[in-house]
Amino acid sequence: MTTAEIRDILLQNFDGKIGDLHEMTNSPYQAKYGTYVDVADKEYLRDICLFLRNDPTLQFNSLLCLSTVDNNDTTLSVVYHLESTTKRHIFAMKVTMPVTEAEVPSITDVWPHANWHEREGWDMMGIRFRGHPDHRRILLEEDYPGHPLRKDFREPIFYHGMKVPY
User: Fold this and answer.
1) Tens digit of pLDDT for each residue in 1-44?
2) Is the confidence at residue 141, as pLDDT, over 80?
3) Which residues, 6+ apart, have CB-to-CB distance to 17 below 8 Å?
4) How far apart are CA 114 and CA 155, in angstroms?
5) Which of 52, 84, 107, 158 suits 142 as a labelling partner, its CA being 20 to 30 A distant?
C-alpha cells in the first residue's frame, strides 16, 4: 500500500486532521522512506496512531523511528516512521508546531518503545510529550540549561563550576 493510499484512508476517518502529502521522487529510496503526510491537528496524533495500529487493512505494529526536527523557522517537528510487518508497508507522518507550543500527545501506550524516543526528543529538542509515563531527560542532567539540538542553543560557558567546553 502506498503512502497516498494510506493518506486517503486517514482522510476518510480523520477529515480535517490530516494535512498534505509530501512525495519525494529523487530516488527510489527517497520515494519509499522520504515521502510523508502532515498531521494537521496535533491533538489527534494519538488517535491517528491508534487507528494506524488497529485498522485491519493497515496494522502498523511497529514504530521504526521517532525523530525531532528544528525547522529553523520558529517551528519544531516530530516525525514518525511506522511499519506493518504483517502487511509489509511503511508510512511516515510529521507534526509541526510553533516553538512556543512544543508539545504533542505521547504515544507510549500505542507503541511502548516510543518511551525512549520521546525522552530523547524532550532532552535534545525540548518537545514535551503530554502523558508520557517518565518524562525526564535521558542523556543529560535534569538541570542542564537548554536543549542542544535546537538551532538557537548556545553552549553554557560554565556548568556545575566547570568550564565548557573542557
Assistant:
1) 999 999 999 999 999 999 999 998 888 888 777 899 999 999 99
2) yes
3) 39, 40, 41, 44, 48
4) 28
5) 107
The string of pLDDT tens digits covering residues 59-112 is 999 999 999 999 999 999 999 999 999 999 999 999 999 999 999 999 999 999
Number of residues that make up the chain: 166
Q: Kindly state the cell numbers that stand for 10.
A: 486517514
Q: Which region, left, alpha or beta, applies to residue 160 given φ > 0 means left and ψ of -120 to 50 means alpha?
A: left
Per DSSP, the residues of 75-109 read: EEEEEEEEEETTTTEEEEEEEEEEGGG-EEE--TT
Residue 36 in 3-state DSSP?
strand
CA distance 138 to 124: 9
What superfamily would CATH give domain 3-163? NADH:ubiquinone oxidoreductase Nqo5 subunit (3.30.460.80)
C-alpha 30: how far from chain center = 18
Side by side, which strands form the sheet with 89-98?
A: 18-22, 36-39, 89-98, 75-84, 62-70
The model's confidence at residue 166, banded by pLDDT at 50, 70 and 90, is low
pTM of the predicted model over 0.70 = yes
